TrEMBL record:
The gene is ftsL. It is found in: Cell membrane. Keywords: Cell cycle, Cell division, Cell membrane, Membrane, Transmembrane, Transmembrane helix. The keyword Transmembrane applies. This is Cell division protein FtsL.
Length: 119
């Protein structure tokens, strides 16, 4: 038995390659196909939302510019109306009408004058 024990100690075991810098086994593909699809769809939805926001902002800006243009034209027309009403009041003054009547040769006849009650 002692011989058997001695011979067994000298039998060499098959050499196992030892790699001192052994790295853990890498998994194939850290991200699965399903996760890739989810990530890509999330990015696509984010881009779509950003584009919709930009489109809405441009529409709002165009509407704002149109409103400002309309308000400006309304202000100009209101100013013209004010100027015209001042001109009407100047042209309808009693002195002016009387001077025009004299130029045309009309005379004031007190018996033909009728007083109209004020408005």
């Amino acid at each position: 038995m002692a011989l058997n024990a001695r011979t067994e100690t000298y039998i060499q075991q098959p050499a196992v390659p030892q790699n001192p810098s052994r790295q853990p086994a890498r998994k194939k593909g850290l991200i699965t196909k399903g996760e890739k699809i989810l990530y890509l769809s999330f990015v696509a939805v984010c881009i779509l939302c950003a584009l919709l926001v930009l489109q809405n902002q441009s529409t709002i800006q165009a509407s704002t510019q149109e409103i400002q243009t309309i308000e400006q034209s309304v202000n100009e027309i209101a100013k013209q109306n004010t100027d015209l009403s001042v001109q009407v009041s100047e042209l309808s003054s009693y002195e002016r009408i009387w001077s025009k009547a004299k130029e045309l040769g009309l005379k004031l006849n007190e018996q033909n004058v009728k007083v109209v009650p004020g408005q």
